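Journal club side-thread
Mid-discussion, someone asked how the predicted structure for our own chain would compare to the paper's figures. Pasting it here so we can look after the session.
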Amino acid sequence: MAISHIVVLVAALTALLCLPCAVAIVACADGLPARRIWTRSGRREIRALRCLDRRLSIDGSIVALPDPDLDELAAELRRLAHQRCTGPTVGSAVWLTAVQRAYDLRLLMASETLGVPHHLASLDGMDLDLERIRVEEKLRAAGLRLR
């Protein structure tokens, strides 16, 4: 009699522990890509994404998007300059690197829009920091409000 109670207790505990996992798998099964491939709408979506990918790429390079407005670039530069000094970038080197890359990309776009010469793409380390400061000053002299 005691053994049957132990078996029932173990079965009940196992069911209680496994039930949330089973419910989560069933609830999230819609987002699984393997399941969507086998449905007609999933295959249609995959074909549409592949077609879009072919349209966007020309000779292996992505088609350039239109240049953003100069005011939008200035606002993005101000926002990214603020993020470089505060927030999660202070404690995370990965986050700081991502923000720096985004800032350099916006600087590059603004300098190309205003015709300011730059070497941002070819430098790294301290040279990149100095080039960043030089380009910022040239952009300020060209009339772009960065601060």
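Post-session note: The radius of gyration is 27 Å.
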